Amino acid sequence: MKLYEKFADEIAELIRTGVLAPGQKVPSVRHASSTYGVSPSTVFQAYYLLESRGLILARARSGYFVREQARRPLPEPGISAQQAQTSEVDVSELVFSVLGSLKDPGTVPFGSAFPSPDLFPLARLARSMARAVRELSPGAVIADMTEGNADLRRQIALRYMVGGVMLPLDELIVTNGAMEALNLCLQCVTRPGDLVAIEAPAFYATLQVLERLELKAVEIPVHPREGIDLASLAESLQRLPIKACWFMSSLQNPLGASMREEKKRALYELLQRHQVPLIEDDVYAELYFGTQPPWPVKSFDREGLVMHCGSFSKCLAPGYRVGWVAGGRYAEQIRRLKLMTTISPSVPAQAALADYLQHGGYDRHLRRLRHALESQQASMLASAARHFPAETRVTRPSGGYFLWFEFPEQVDSLKLFRLALAQGISLAPGPIFSATRRFGNCARLNHGHPWDAASERAMEVLGRIIGSF
Ligand SMILES: Cc1ncc(COP(=O)(O)O)c(C=O)c1O
Fold it and tell me: How far apart are CA 2 and CA 299, in angstroms?
């Protein structure tokens, strides 16, 4: 943690505990700097941070004041109730009806699955695309369909190395987004009727894939901060013939949970004992807020039991449809399945990304993106504390761009979704994240767009609707 963040946290604590009351002036920069022994620029940075979190505001020529409505932060939700039962999956209609209504560009996009396009270096990518297409060798136009672009695969493998995974290049298969990778992995290790362990709540497309492949879900509870409940998983593996697990060990969608390293190791050892493969969906891996990338479960894999799926859709190039899988012992089977279905992602898109990763300043872009997402998260949390009922619970993920809200019991999030949409606000209601339509009083809200007056107004409107149940 940087010094200014530490100092900001100390001031936030004074506000939270009421030592600094709403409306009160916070210490001037000069005063704070000499009292706390930090430089004026550290104090300024801390105050900017607190301002972006909605805790203080600047008044012209008067200094910084505690915001009037700055309220106690909302508490975090607990783990989802124990319910490791098997179930047929039938959510597609509900998911499509929700997704279909998110398309209106005039809507405040809290229900969206993507961050704002303005946060991506699209102009720089376009230059990479132009150069890559100009320089594409005639041979590559065909060869890259089967093998994938060699430069791109090398660049991806280098990023794995930094994240603690030494990956043989032939394990790496470039796919049409992570979605294709995840589908192929599941097809590789299951047959219709098989049981697959998934998270509760889970990314809705996971449920749709299970439904399409006629697989049955075993829902494992997830703690909003610590990730899946290993005891429940161990019990299910003991009792049921589970053929595969599909989990997100970092920045889980929709809860944002990230498992600690020891827990990831324990998960791997459990699966190794049962010889059950893990499909690790890690599409938000680059969006961590700390200083170190979280290591995937794949980093503990010595037997090729983990199929690790990643993507550029969420952090660099939505719409390019380029993802990948490090397929472990299943790599060859996955490669064949891909050749039998879509053959290859677009060769020019792969070449463009390879060029960008080598010359485009990817790490600089990622630092900016993470910083924007972190400050927008603080703004949404502060706004929720101002406008939502005090009994509302909310997650505080250490990355990504989703918050998961648990509203008071009587709130029906499907109804909330319809009422909010009528007012031009989208959200992702809880039941689309469950095979058994649970989480009826929950919703996922996206803070991936720059925070502005329209976002603040939308939170106020949502707060009023939630309060009316
Ligand atoms: C958890 C999760 N996995 C996979 C995907 C799909 O990624 P891609 O766009 O690369 O296919 C998404 C996109 O919403 C996601 O949220």
Answer: 28
